[in-house]
Amino acid sequence: MSAWQFCPGCGDRLETSELGGLPRLVCRAACGFVHWDNPAPVLAALVEYDDRIVLARNKAWAAGAFGLVTGFLERGEHPAAGVAREVKEELGLDALAVTLIGVYPFARKHEVIIAYHVLARGEIRLNEELAEFRLIAPDRLKAWDFGTGLAVSDWLAGRGA
């Protein structure tokens, strides 16, 4: 459950009450605020560039830890447009084609991952969030068993790998 203690609308104390079959934080006052604590939608891009897959390492990650390009969906944004935006922002690449791979729960970070295969071109220019990248031949790509790795697994299975 969330660390929220007070209502952002009226400032009264929040208390736990069952709504929709789950415990929710609700305002004791009559303002009607409910903290639904829904997961955040995250976009993930399996970027194909020059017939290879781009894996990137975020500056906050341990050395040697690489993954897909990810970012949060913006308010009012279509997920396919959002993933193209993330690829442009983080790698400097233009999306030529964007195809949905699937949607995956990521309970550990309270997120829902919407993963796409993105065919991209241009010159890779990392933004300030990324430390480095690797280009991997698709036949050498290996999935991991959590988060965006589930999308990698599905994408590889769809290719017959």
UniProtKB/TrEMBL annotation:
List where the protein spans the membrane.
Answer: none
Sorted alphabetically, which SUPFAM superfamilies does this protein's record hold?
Answer: Nudix (SSF55811)
Listed under catalytic activity are: a 5'-end NAD(+)-phospho-ribonucleoside in mRNA + H2O = a 5'-end phospho-adenosine-phospho-ribonucleoside in mRNA + beta-nicotinamide D-ribonucleotide + 2 H(+)
User: Which is a Gene Ontology cellular component entry for this protein?
Assistant: cytosol
The protein's UniProt keywords, in alphabetical order, are: Hydrolase, Magnesium, Metal-binding
- What is the required cofactor set for this protein? Mg(2+); Zn(2+)
Biological process GO annotation list? NAD+ catabolic process; NADP+ catabolic process
Q: Under the GO molecular function aspect, what terms does this record hold?
A: metal ion binding; NADH pyrophosphatase activity
Family the entry assigns: Belongs to the Nudix hydrolase family. NudC subfamily.
Protein name as it appears in the record: NUDIX hydrolase
The scientific name of the source species is: Candidatus Accumulibacter aalborgensis
